């Protein structure tokens, strides 16, 4: 296995990790921004107020994007397992 192949495999793994985590992180960031604007407008400074909507938004995003996330991870793992014989010899 050449160093180029190792770097390419690592790059692909990072890309898949970013693609899988991006929808939930974006949902949490957008929800946090909306709740922060609401808190600033109403002057409610309760820390737990931002936690529950973020969790709900991430759960909804996981339910909606779950099949796509599983497909992306399954395709990467399948390609990885199929390339094992070419990596070894």
From TrEMBL:
<comment type="similarity">
    <text>Belongs to the FliQ/MopD/SpaQ family.</text>
</comment>
<keyword id="KW-0975">Bacterial flagellum</keyword>
<keyword id="KW-1133">Transmembrane helix</keyword>
<keyword id="KW-0969">Cilium</keyword>
<feature type="transmembrane region" description="Helical">
    <location>
        <begin position="51"/>
        <end position="70"/>
    </location>
</feature>
<keyword id="KW-1003">Cell membrane</keyword>
<keyword id="KW-0966">Cell projection</keyword>
<feature type="transmembrane region" description="Helical">
    <location>
        <begin position="16"/>
        <end position="39"/>
    </location>
</feature>
<protein>
    <recommendedName>
        <fullName>Flagellar biosynthetic protein FliQ</fullName>
    </recommendedName>
</protein>
<keyword id="KW-0472">Membrane</keyword>
<comment type="function">
    <text>Role in flagellar biosynthesis.</text>
</comment>
<dbReference type="InterPro" id="IPR006305">
    <property type="entry name" value="FliQ"/>
</dbReference>
<dbReference type="Pfam" id="PF01313">
    <property type="entry name" value="Bac_export_3"/>
</dbReference>
<dbReference type="InterPro" id="IPR002191">
    <property type="entry name" value="Bac_export_3"/>
</dbReference>
<keyword id="KW-0282">Flagellum</keyword>
<keyword id="KW-0812">Transmembrane</keyword>
